[in-house]
Design goal:
By secondary structure, this protein is mainly α. The chain contains three helices and no strands. The longest helix is centred in the C-terminal third of the chain and has 35 residues.
Length: 93
């Protein structure tokens, strides 16, 4: 079931990337979409090897570090946005 969802996302992101290449100019947002599309296709094609690598040993450690870094970044981004909103609200009052 998981791999079906990954394949669907990969196809949708590929269509989106092609449309963005045709309809818009190149910027970092478009580059990010291309990179996410490439990552989805790589995972969809090699999911058994990637899952096996991340199941034990060094791959498991790298997976844990990756997800911890993602969580910390999200928390930092949230606190930065919250801090800016708080400053903006006090300046308006």
């Amino acid at each position: 079931m998981k791999i079906i969802f990954v394949w669907l996302l990969a196809i949708v992101f590929l269509i989106d990337s092609v449309l963005r290449a045709i309809r818009s100019s190149f910027n970092l947002g478009v580059l990010m979409m291309y990179l996410i599309t490439a990552a989805l296709w790589i995972y969809a094609l090699f999911h058994t090897k990637i899952d096996a690598f991340c199941a034990a040993g060094a791959g498991r450690v790298l997976k844990i570090i990756f997800f911890c870094c993602c969580a910390v970044r999200k928390r930092e981004r949230t606190s930065i946005v919250t801090g800016n909103d708080a400053k903006r609200r006090t300046a308006v009052k």
